[in-house]
Amino acid sequence: MKMRVAGWAGEPVFSAIRMVQLAEVNVAWRSPLSPSISVVIPAYNANKFIVRALASIESQTLTPDEVIVVDDGSTDHTALQVAEFARHSKLALVLERQPNRGSSAARNHGIRRAAGELITFLDADDLIYPGFLECTVSGLTRFPNWAACFSDRDVVDADGKFISHDLDHPMFRQIVKKVMGGSFFELEDGDLFSHMIAGSVIPMTITCRKSRIDEVGGFDETLLFNEDRLFFLQLIKKKGKLGYFNESLGVWQRHAANKTSASNAINAIKYSDVILQKLMADKDSLDLSPAEIDGVQAAQRRLATQWIYAASRARSRSTIALGRRFLVERRITMGCFLKAIGRYLISSPKS
Questions:
Q1: What is the pTM of this model?
Q2: How far, rounded to the nearest angstrom, does the alpha carbon of residue 233 sit from its chain's CA centroid?
Q3: How far, CA to CA in Å, does 308 sit from each of 198, 205, 260, 325?
Q4: How far apart are CA 40 and CA 67, in angstroms?
Q5: Do residues 126 and 52 touch, judged by C-beta distance below 8 A?
Q6: Which of 39, 147, 196, 320 is positioned for an S-S bond with 212, CB 3.0–4.6 A?
Q7: CA distances from 270 to 6, 221, 279, 341 (A)
Q8: Backbone φ/ψ region at 160: left (φ over 0), alpha (ψ -120 to 50), beta
Q9: Which of 6-20, 94-108, 301-315 has the lowest mean pLDDT?
Q10: CA angle 103, 107, 108 (to 5 degrees)
Q11: Span 215-227, mean pLDDT?
């Protein structure tokens, strides 16, 4: 069947990569013994992107059993876009709605609703190439000890221009991998937890076993930033193996609304510190080693230093409150605190 996989609803066409034209897609044969697949998409004010994400799922060579879009209290036309797409789509598409509670709560809502043995997470502003589901499901089928399987992604800017490959990140390169054959690799680094303390380098475009998601209790709904990092750290401590396909099978588009954008630096530091506090509070139940505890404490000290340079008038309440806490906990000196506040006071407000 012919399926349009790019340029939906006037969205930018990624001319530097593969989704640039109408593609001839051959749907893979599904064995009755194949695991069932649910795709979960948390969406908040994703009017500009959601149709493109859904179109990329419709283009898959392996059709999912269901696609669940969780509208997290959007104030734009996200829900209308999903409903309109569903009218013309062959996907088993479900729209769930909830008050705005964040992407963790939206993912958990989708997990509870999902009937699949495997759950693929896709953010509403990202997309996947036609072979993503087939490859990640194949990896989980071939390697039953894997908790999750992901792939590399093309990182593009707001205009769709290619920037880099996601897994070229220096932190990911440091992780020890085991060659599994057929472009599949396993993260087998004994220090994987320690590598991930400073920040997750695992793409959130990923297919997971629902049983392993349930083991860690899903996503922490108190976290509005960096929730995937705590999820993966908990998964690793539950002895969940992670594997990946070493080719780009998706797109991560950077734009101003990304949580990872520079304008969100203070919130990223704030919630990163919350994650580290949670790890220390749960160090016994997580069975953290002395080296891992040292790593968490070192990360806490680094965050305090990052705050000094990230003080921003655009996040005034968070900036001062966070700095005050770092000062009380003696993670920064009074001199550093005053220097940062001075920079904050003379800086121009961000638009």
A1: 0.85
A2: 13
A3: 17, 32, 19, 13
A4: 6
A5: no
A6: 147
A7: 37, 15, 15, 17
A8: left
A9: 6-20
A10: 120
A11: 93
